[in-house]
TrEMBL record:
Residues 135-338 form the Peptidase M24 domain. CDD domains: APP-like (cd01092). Residues 3-125 form the Creatinase N-terminal domain. Pfam families: Creatinase_N, Peptidase_M24. It comes from Caproiciproducens faecalis. It comes from the Bacteria. This is M24 family metallopeptidase.
Length: 357
């Protein structure tokens, strides 16, 4: 099915005659509009894109299959939508319950001449088409290039935020629209914090440094994590942790295949970490789906029993985080296929020592 057919299948399942898209991600997916402004309304008969004069011409050119309606001070969005409701005899409109605030919902409820029902539109984006996969691959390639660059850039004594700024600058200089999310740079003991944003801490010789970052291309994200050493390789337990995470990540990747339950991929990686005695230090899911948003559903979690489908793109990112010592995470973006997983991020995963003494 195409995108509109998928939307209409969701409508049929919830007994609604129209869906109103308000989120950045779903508006972009269905119309190319990536903005907090504007609406996409899908009915059983037509696709409507409702925008103001700032977006009208661009959206009109990109949506030959839709009616593009111009919002003005006189022709407000509710007036336009109510005209469609009356013309198509729409009784129930589905709305994105996970996107609308309570106040916006109450406003819609008062203004629209139809009943409102919350629906989950996001599943229409789960399986990527060939063009989406190609775009994500470009974002992954830029991230790989950025990692290679940063290994030659980083020096003992640099601040974490200097490294983060260089990563973002390099990605933008090499084809990224922007970064996928706030870049994580966690060095030394800060590596025990999975989502530590880059700070003013200086990188010391012997530190492990975890980088979690991504490039956005055509509004599609990449998301990669690598951990490396600076100055000299650490000794003792951190080396054991690194190799444990690397083995767990490989087992997780090998489990990515159409028909496999997401929880089983999580279990494949998590069991390696538990066997090594670090189960309590791996507190997050193995990964998540990836696309227009950097975190999408379904998730590779211990409780997600849905099965993977060919064309999904997921992250595989186990980690071990020991307070007072440090941490390691390794992450790749992986395309689900009918057979073997296709790893889209290709940066090396052996422990690398940058700025070696």
């Amino acid at each position: 099915m195409n995108r509109l057919e998928n939307c209409r299948a969701i409508l049929a399942g919830c007994n609604a005659q129209a869906m109103l898209c308000t989120s950045y991600h779903n508006k972009f997916y269905l119309s190319g509009l990536y903005s907090s402004s504007g609406y996409v309304l899908i009915t059983q008969k037509q696709k409507y894109v409702i925008v103001d004069s700032r977006y009208y011409e661009e959206v009109r050119q990109n949506n030959r299959d839709a009616q593009v309606l111009l919002m003005t001070g006189e022709k407000t969005y509710d007036l336009l939508i109510n005209g469609i409701i009356e013309e198509e005899n729409i009784r129930t409109v589905g709305f994105e319950g996970d996107d609308l605030s309570y106040d916006r919902y109450r406003s819609l409820e008062k203004k629209l001449h139809a009943s409102l029902v919350p629906i989950d539109i996001n599943p229409i984006r789960a399986v990527k088409d060939a063009q989406e996969i190609e775009t994500i691959q470009k974002a992954c390639a830029i991230a790989d290039e950025a990692y290679a660059h940063i290994l030659n850039f980083v020096r003992v004594g640099m601040r974490e935020d200097e490294v983060a700024n260089e990563l973002v600058h390099f990605m933008k200089q090499n084809g990224a629209m922007k970064e996928s999310f706030d870049t994580i740079v966690a060095s030394g003991v800060r590596g025990s914090m999975p989502h530590a944003k880059a700070g003013s801490k200086k990188i010391e010789s012997g530190d492990l440094v975890t980088l979690d970052f991504g490039a956005k291309v055509g509004q599609y994200c990449s998301d990669i994590t690598r951990t490396f050493a600076v100055g000299k390789a650490p000794d003792g337990e951190l080396l054991k942790i690194y190799e444990t995470v690397r083995e767990a990540q490989q087992k997780g990747i090998e489990a990515v295949c159409a028909g496999t339950r997401f929880c089983d991929a999580d279990r494949a990686a998590r069991s390696v970490i538990e066997k090594a005695g670090y189960g309590e230090y791996f507190g997050h899911n193995l990964g998540h789906s990836l696309g227009i948003n950097d975190h999408e559903d379904p998730r590779l979690s211990p409780t997600e029993e849905a099965r993977m489908e060919a064309g999904m793109v997921v992250t595989v990112e186990p980690g071990i985080y020991v307070p007072g010592l440090g941490g390691v995470r390794i992450e790749d973006d992986v395309l689900v296929t009918a057979n073997r997983p296709r790893v889209l991020t290709r940066s090396p995963k052996q422990l690398i020592v940058a700025d070696k003494e």
